[in-house]
Amino acid sequence: MLGGVETRSVSPVFVGRADELAVLTDVLTRAAGQEPQAMLIGGEAGVGKTRLTEEFLCAADRRGAVVAVGGCVEIGAEGLPFAPFSTALRILHRLLPGELAAAAAGQEDELARILPELGDTPRGPHDEESTARLFELTARMLERLAADRTVVLVLEDLHWADTSTRHLLSYLFRTLTSGRLVIVATYRADDVHRRHPLRPLLAELDRLRTVRRIELSRFNRAEVRRQLAGILAAQPDEDFVDSVFDRSDGNAFFVEELVASRESGCRTGLTESLRDLLLVRVEVLPDETQGLVRIVAEGGSTVEYPLLRAVAGLTEDELIEALRAAVGANILLATPDGDGYRFRHSLVREAVSDDLLPGERARVNRRYAEAMEADGSLVRAEERVIRLASYWYHANDPAKALPAVLAASVAARRRHAYSEQLRLLERAMDLWDSAPEDVIEALRPADYTEVYPPCGCDPATTALQRLDLLAEATVAARYGGERDRALKITKTALRLLEGDPDPLRAAWFWTERSRLIAGLGRGDGWEEIARAQDLVRGLPPSQVHAEVLVRAASWGMLHKPGPDNLAAAERAVEYARMVDAEETELNARITVGALLTDSGDEEGGLAEMRAVVERTTQLGLTMLAGRAHINLTSQLESLGRSHEAVELAEQGAELVRRSRLLDSEAWVCGNMAESLYSLGRWDEAAEAARRTLLVGQSAAPRGCASARLAYLALARGESVEANHQLAAAHTHYGTHETQPQHRIPLYRLAIGVAAAEGRIADVRAETAAAVAYGFPLGQHRYAWPLLLAAATAEADARGLPAAEAGRDAALDVLRTAARPLATPVPVWTAHAEYVRAELLRAEARDTLADWTAVEKAVRPLERPYLLARACHRLAESLLAAGDREPAGALLREAYATAERIGSRTLREDLALLAQRARLPLTDADSAATAPVPETDPVEALGLTSRERDVLRLVAAGSTNRKIAEELFISPKTASVHVSNILAKLGVAGRGEAAALAHRLRLFAAPSPVSPRPEAARPGV
């Protein structure tokens, strides 16, 4: 409308910044190679960030890039959720409608939370993964959009960004991996004080190699001179250059303002005050224009023309003339899309706004609010409620502000902007005491809340309470990742409830505290659950009562397995049905199914969980469907039905992946990794575990993934990597982890690492700690592998001097622990048989019948690694009995398995045994007619005769000094020999070398064992 108005205070010549512009143009080149780029541009207000960005965008446009710019919006204490992203995506939607629709295909409803043009924003679901799910969808949409074209997104004024925008930007910078995408964000560095919310984000981004930052400095005198020459279209007087440089201190915007003030005839009116400098050109405008400028200043970063016309109180002709004067003075600019106006620089807007009198500011905000209430079409629909809340709040009208702020909190929740929802709820609670009683009494929970379940009251007719807002704020803080804040809110609520007892509400808040305390790692949450149970005990059935029981049963299932948990879960199902809370009922039925399986009713438990999978999928309750898949796949693996578990896990992973339930996907993939490991599909298991680490948002699934990678490393013979992954698992779980399903596997891994490194004392210490911790109901699936690892370590250490003391006590510990353990299905019966045989081997009392029984029990299980190990022991026993032909067949079968799955340790053990027995390991060797020559196993490892002597002493536990004395060499020479041996054996330390020597029986053949198939088999 005012495109023909000329401005003269901006230099047409781009001054300085050559190095910075070169960095930015290099970003375009890199992005063209399918390498996403991230840039931060910082600098004080007025230093030239916008001008540099404009020059960069011109360069991008010349290269054919698609450019979209979005600015953060300052509206009171809170910004519009995702404002810069919404604006930039709206531009892309206009420029590339078909391409953006294709990139968002199938996820339009969810992405509409950021770009409303894609469709209606759904009401749910809301959970702790909602925000991460939305961010993941946004990242993938941008990658697809930039797959075959360079897309440049510029986000301006990041110092005003809302929390959701900051979190999304961080997510994109960390996760974008493909596409010709460039994201540039600018921020005002002098605004980022120590407690500014942007400061932690900048520190986080500085640690990312993929993010580059440019900090703009002020102009030097020569650059100021060039700027003045561009503005004046002539060479400036040197005295004037000195004056401007001294006054502006090299700030580009201040240079422009000083020139503009002189051109406006205000030379004598300038003062040393920055605010006065910025206001002086406003004050020389006509009175109507000054009034209009003040109205625009209070309207926000941008004010739409229709809204401005409704608020200004001018005729259209008067409004146009006033706008023309403001634009001509270079105070206001038309927005790029031509539907509104903004200040040319935010510093001027801030100065004008700060200059308003208190009553004047309230009056202007009221006029904005009244205009928007009268005509809802004046602003975009997605902005209306939040801007209206801000205008009424700053109009100092609690009666109007309270319902408006509550409506804005609902809008923020629907966009998964939980941090903004929390701020708005806190503002509503601040307004609560000052709002009139009749206004508060007219508010209804049905309109503004959804987290606290109705318990005998109608939310459409019952008055809203402050406790309702505290409940909403608690969940908003938890979903937004502010768990400490949520914990404080629950404390406030419970303090209020002390004077006005409401046991159901109190129980609800205690249940939330339980979840928060466990999530923060400050306890296991049981004390809080117990308080909630005490509060609901004896009360009529309600949804809160059912949820407390579900929480208690689920906690017990994970932390303290026992029969009481099943009763609580079944009662939760019953109560939920009584009050028609189907979602709560389905959640409880998952727990019932898992507990039924653990208690011995395998088919009943599996059927219950399958029914829940079907019903939750039918209802679209993907979060619950994901939990059902997690528990069902886990129980199938516990029953030895690994093929079924993998098949169901693949279906579950696809289901939750479509909804971007990242933690749910992490759990399903972690379970899949466990089953793939059991089936000997180790490469696939590693891939599934790494996927868990990639998508997992919380610590527990990531800890499980690291533990799974440690299992793989141990089985492959990579003890250093196993130790690294074990440490990572401990870090993920933290110090407050008490769940047996996590603790027992960590003990088992510690036993395995210690055994691999020849630390038999540590094996025994970890075993004793695990047994002392206990193996509760349903934990036999983790206990049997642990006992097998410990028994195998004892058997392999037989003959090791350090292992002799305490051996009998260690074996007694293992036998005592094994006796009460359940063996409900064949896989655990086989483990029990295996443990019994290894304990006998540790005492040199194992027989051919023992290992035959183990092999027979393991073979039907489809556990190739376990079977290969059993075949190894059976072959060893057969050879001791002189039965070479079946031993050879078993060795070849086990060796082929070890080769296929990648177990170096097992492959070496089998090769050495075959070498000693002069048996071929491959079909090609079997067909050869030439006899296999007898080879010294020590020489086969590449050791010299002197190194053989040193290794024998290392295996006996000798120090370097002792070795030197025995072999009549110097300690330094002994040390060199030990280092060479470690390198040749591929081990990390002396203990591991000693363990390898004893495990392979390099220096003493195993005690002769007679085949005693008819002998009585001692029990465990």
Describe the structure.
With 1020 residues, the protein is mostly helical. The radius of gyration is 36 Å and the shape is globular.
What key phrases describe this protein's structure?
1020 residues, 8 strands, 4% strand, globular, disordered N terminus
Query: Can you count the helices?
Result: 52
Which structural class matches the secondary elements?
mainly alpha
Structural shape: globular
The residue-averaged pLDDT reads 87
Poorly predicted ranges: 1-8, 267-272, 927-933, 1005-1020
Cα(first) to Cα(last) distance is 92 Å
- The gyration radius over C-alpha positions equals 36 Å
Spatial ordering of strands, largest sheet: 2-3-4-1-5
The amount of helix comes to: 55-70%
The count of DSSP E runs of length 2 or more, i.e. the number of strands, is 8
Quick one: biggest sheet? 5 strands, parallel
Q: Hey, roughly how much beta strand do the residues contain?
A: under 5%
Summarize the structure.
This protein has 1020 residues and is mainly α.
What's the layout of helices and strands?
Layout: H1 18-31, E1 37-43, H2 49-62, E2 66-71, H3 83-95, H4 97-103, H5 108-111, H6 130-145, E3 151-156, H7 163-175, E4 181-188, H8 198-206, E5 211-215, H9 221-232, H10 238-248, H11 252-263, H12 274-283, H13 287-299, E6 303-304, H14 305-312, H15 316-328, E7 332-334, E8 340-343, H16 346-354, H17 358-374, H18 381-394, H19 398-414, H20 418-432, H21 437-442, H22 445-448, H23 466-479, H24 483-499, H25 503-519, H26 526-536, H27 543-559, H28 563-578, H29 582-598, H30 602-619, H31 622-638, H32 642-658, H33 662-678, H34 682-695, H35 699-716, H36 719-733, H37 740-756, H38 760-773, H39 780-796, H40 801-804, H41 807-818, H42 826-842, H43 848-858, H44 864-880, H45 884-901, H46 904-917, H47 923-927, H48 937-940, H49 945-955, H50 960-967, H51 971-985, H52 990-999
Helix pairs in contact: 1-2, 3-4, 4-6, 6-7, 7-8, 9-10, 9-11, 10-11, 11-12, 12-16, 13-15, 13-16, 14-17, 17-18, 18-19, 19-20, 20-23, 23-24, 23-25, 24-25, 25-26, 25-27, 26-27, 27-28, 27-29, 28-29, 29-30, 29-31, 30-31, 31-32, 31-33, 32-33, 33-34, 33-35, 34-35, 35-36, 35-37, 36-37, 37-38, 37-39, ...
